[in-house]
Amino acid sequence: MAEPILSIEGVSFRYPNQSDYAVQNVSFTAERGEWLAIVGHNGSGKSTIARMLIGLLRPERGAIRLFGRLLNDATVWEVRRRVGLVFQNPDNQFVGATVEDDIAFALENNGIPRLEMVERIREAIRQVHMEPFLHYEPHRLSGGQKQRVAIAGILALRPDMIILDEATSMLDPRGREEVLETVRRLNRQQRITVLSITHDLEEAAKADRLIVMNKGEVMAEGTPEQIFRLGSKLERIGLDLPFAVKMGSRLRERGIPLRIGYFTTEELVEELWTLYSKK
Amino acid sequence: MDIVFEKVEHVYNARSPLARRALYDVNVAIRSGAYVAVVGHTGSGKSTLLQHLNGLLQPTSGAVKIGEETITSHKRPKQLKPLRKKVGVVFQFPEHQLFEETVEKDICFGPLNFGVPEDEAKRKARELIKLVGLSEDVLVRSPFDLSGGQMRRVAIAGVLALEPEVLVLDEPTAGLDPRGRKEMMEMFYRLHREKQLTTVLVTHSMEDAARYADEIIVMHEGTVWGHGTPEEIFRDADKLAAIGLSVPETVKLKQQLEKRFGVVIPSPCLTLEQTAEAIQQLFAKGERP
């Protein structure tokens, strides 16, 4: 089996002056090119994990390995160059006066020569389909456009992994779709590993694999199909099921013998049609 | 309180080269006691519309009538104080507006400014903290030690402390997890009924608009594109899609079923329960079309 790009082994973390663990004995891995979603309610520990992955927080116990190397003071800078984090609030991550300056910021910090910077900015802005906005001031962009610029800033550093920390939760439906579409394309075409931290199970349904967090611990792990079979267990820990799953369970309660294990509206319609035409 | 917009126009930076028309020809009436959802794409004018409801913005032409008060381009902000008491606005991320040392002081800030005696304001704070689903011992704590969801509830209690007759909610559940979202929407619905409020909800969630609102106002490019019951508004999904809006998931399912089955489903299918019942009836009829 291929070496995992990320592996977390028995990691625990407590915030200062807190007796309860925010993250407790968590282990999982991610393969190169995989889209992994970590889902859980607010306060389940999922953002704490993201912060540990780029060395903003240090685990109390356990080990984090990225690209085959242990994360520590000596490796953290390399990790931050190779892993990009997109935060929740699009307004909290701009430093440049224009889109172009903003993307240039991290490149300057990494000592990239000017000619190469110009080239990388052009390439990054194209990948997020924001070329016409290169000289815009960030505050004139919509939320979805701002998040795409944040992603371009990461792409300019040629990352191996992108972490989305609730990156779509403050966007309107169109903005959310824009951002997810961009990330999906990068994931498929460039095999950038994606770790999306979210409480939106419609977003999580797009992942290859899901990890469900509850009260700091991993509650379940599997493909979207396997996870959504947990049904009301997910609702009990404050998550919402995809629409077709919720609808399906209500129809079963009313005596319509639907099978379990689909999660798009189209699949539900086909399933209902099959049952209906057999009558 | 009845709210009426008459030929309202709003131009930002009027009489300057940066002038931008955000609203035009807005004619709409919201009856007292109604729960109205305002939907529209980002940039459609819904935030500008909302800011006219308590005089934060004045129309550059036309008039906004709120109860007995009329706001026109001439009406001075000084005369708007009574209106601000009657119309409570919960802005997006209201927790960012908290500033006092304790939760109690934060909730009392508004009433004290409007001349309510201190013991009366404190009594109200105790009542409101429970109404928004927090316990009384939160009152002595710093609002900044609370979780995001708790902070938001404190900020909402601060708005309710002025006993508004109209409650305006701008994306009140943005950033909350699914359970927090549902609890908050149920709380507003309960307040709407118990306090007989007129509620204006600005939202991107077509599900919430379908579930809670009596009427929906659809904004598009600065003016009212449509106004009706959820059933009327969600009848034409294609027209909504053309202006970048969608219908609730339940309505999408209904339309796909109608197409696949070659039938007409009479129910508006606005909630999960309503839709489940409509599908059950479809199956109970038995015969294939």
TrEMBL record, chain A:
The protein's name: Energy-coupling factor transporter ATPase
A single Gene Ontology CC term: ATP-binding cassette (ABC) transporter complex
PANTHER family: ENERGY-COUPLING FACTOR TRANSPORTER ATP-BINDING PROTEIN ECFA1, HEAVY METAL TRANSPORTER
Superkingdom of the organism of origin: Bacteria
Topology term for the membrane: Peripheral membrane protein
Subcellular location: Cell membrane
DNA-binding recorded as keyword: no
Keyword Transport tagged: yes
Coiled coil: none
PROSITE patterns assigned: ABC_TRANSPORTER_1 (PS00211), ABC_TRANSPORTER_2 (PS50893)
Protein family (similarity comment): Belongs to the ABC transporter superfamily.
Record's keyword terms, sorted: ATP-binding, Cell membrane, Membrane, Nucleotide-binding, Translocase, Transport
GO MF term (any one): ATPase-coupled transmembrane transporter activity
